Amino acid sequence: MKKLLPNWVNVALTSALLALAIPAHASAEKGLEIAKEMKARDIGWGDSQAEMKMILTNKQGESSEREIRIQSLEVQQDGDKSLSIFDSPQDVKGTAFLSFSHAVGDDEQWLFLPALSRVKRISSSNKSGPFMGSEFAYEDLTSFEVPKYTYNYLRDENINGLDAYVIETIPVDKNSGYTRRVVWVDKAHYRVQKIEFYDRRNALLKTLTMTDYQQYLDKYWRPLNMLMVNHQTGKKTELNWSNFRFNTGLKDEDFNQNTLKRAR
């Protein structure tokens, strides 16, 4: 009598065969199409402001909190601009971070440290470094721009009860701290649900989960909770967002190096 394989084995084999059946060029094309749709659904929001609580937790479970104000400006045909201002605790109060994302070429980033009363430029070679002791790297804080990566569609998968695409994104920038990212994008709204980051040795470094999405202006989704877990250090950073406002009248002149020192 023919011996039947367990159902889970059949499912795994079927998935593997389907993956093999997708030509490489088709995988890349589908991955790129998904990325373009993600970007297309987040165009036109203009400018925004919000508050954020950053919770840093070390390997021993000890945590500390920071309160930050964020303002952002959408730039047509290029990456977005953002300004982050630390309000507490006292030892980092007045610290400000300015970021200009670019669709093509190096991003530009500056950090104002009030204790030193000087503006430090973050070089491209240091973009993989940690942002203010968190598990987010400077390069994690730039806007998503399609030309920054090449893409591969990997599979469909259910995540958090949602049907999702799973795509691989490979940074074009040789200074990136990652060899690749694996991204879960829900099919209904093209919202990122989870990202796995792989380091330069292609080992799993971090996982970012994005939850509690809220919709603004009847179109734009923002996650109110973001949790980055570093699998290699045991540390984690949680971002809790609140009070999103859009079309607040921010202009380009609100985002330059002079605003860093005035940002309090």
From TrEMBL:
Organism superkingdom: Bacteria
All copies of domain Uncharacterized protein TP-0789, residue ranges: 79-262
Entry annotated with the keyword Disulfide bond: no
One Pfam family recorded for the sequence: LolA_like
Matches recorded under CDD domains: LolA_like
This protein's UniProt keywords: Lipoprotein, Signal
Signal peptide as annotated in the record: 1-26
InterPro entries xref list: Sporulation_related, TP_0789-like
NAD recorded as keyword: no
Name recorded for this polypeptide: Outer membrane lipoprotein-sorting protein
